[in-house]
Design brief:
- By secondary structure, the chain is mainly β.
- The protein is 0% helix and 50% strand.
- The chain has no helices and eleven strands.
- Strands 2, 4, 5, 6, 9, 10 and 11 form a seven-stranded mixed β-sheet that branches.
- A hairpin with a 4-residue loop joins strand 7 and strand 8.
């Protein structure tokens, strides 16, 4: 299984980014997909998940700014992030698993893409 994340970069506060994650080596449509992030010194946290049926999950504190979507024809999951804040600075990882909400030891992970938000 390979998950290739892209779309990160340096952006000013208030800006937007769209992250992409191309998956291969798995039956993409049957997996839940998710995005997590990890800032230096912090634990990895889940920021969005999307189930195989297209239903989504977000932590309450991120609702409204983060939007996850998937294109099963392209084996790709996206994360649209708006109104970026400096505290959103982190490495963003995409994930494939059986649960859109809970991270498990059986999940597959991509290599991550750096998002840096300047104030």
């Amino acid at each position: 299984v390979q998950l290739q994340a892209s779309g990160g970069g340096l952006v000013q506060a208030g800006g937007s980014l769209r992250l992409s994650c191309a998956a291969s080596g798995l039956t993409f449509s049957s997996y839940a997909m998710g995005w997590s992030r990890q800032a230096p010194g912090n634990q990895r946290e889940s920021v969005a998940g999307i189930r195989s049926d297209g239903s989504t999950y977000y932590p309450d504190y991120l609702k409204g700014r983060f939007t996850i979507s998937r294109d099963n024809a392209k084996n790709t999951v996206y994360l649209q992030v708006n109104s970026l804040k400096p505290e959103d600075t982190a490495i963003y990882y995409c994930r494939a698993g059986r649960n859109a909400v809970v991270l498990t030891s059986r999940d597959y992970w991509g290599q991550g893409t750096q998002v840096t938000v300047s104030s």
